[in-house]
Amino acid sequence: MAQNIPVGEVIVKLLRESKTPLSTYELAKKAKISWSTANTHCYKLKDVGTIDGKLETAEIGASKKMLWWLKK
After folding, report:
1. 60-64: Cβ within 8 A, 24+ apart
2. Please, what's the b/e burial string for 34-58 (b: 16 or more CB within 10 A of its CB; e: otherwise)?
3. 25 contacts: CB under 8 Å, gap ≥ 6
4. CA 25 to CA 34: how far, in whole Å?
5. CATH number for the domain including 63?
6. Can you tell me whether residue 43 is helix, strand or coil?
7. Distance (Å, rounded) from C-alpha 63 to C-alpha 72?
8. In whole angstroms, what is the distance from residue 61 CA to residue 72 CA?
9. For 10-42, what is each residue's pLDDT tens digit?
10. Which domain holds residue 60?
11. What element of type H or E holds 53?
């Protein structure tokens, strides 16, 4: 992650540049932060209405992931 740029701004920038929703894991990897940090900031951004997300369940197995996108 670039120095001195707030994590929330980095997440918004990554979502703005993406053509598709990104998972918490994808955001964490691209921003070079931990999954838990990305998750915390995504929920904060959702609470203030900047982004939205939904829980997606895999067709096989029990895995779930949160997908995030910018609100229009």
Report:
1. none
2. eeebbbebbeebeeeeebebeeeee
3. 35, 38, 65
4. 9
5. 1.10.10.10
6. helix
7. 28
8. 33
9. 999 999 999 999 999 999 999 999 999 999 999
10. 7-70
11. strand 51-57
Q: Is residue 64 part of a domain?
A: yes
**Residue whose structure tokens are 């067709």:** 59
Query: What pTM, to 2 d.p., does this model score?
Result: 0.88
Half-sphere exposure of 29 (CA within 13 A, CB side): 5
**pLDDT band, residue 2 (cuts 50/70/90):** low
Looking up tokens 């920038």 gives 13
Query: Is residue 25 one of the residues assigned to a domain?
Result: yes
Distance CA 62, CA 72 (A): 31
Which amino acid is residue 38, in one-letter code?
A
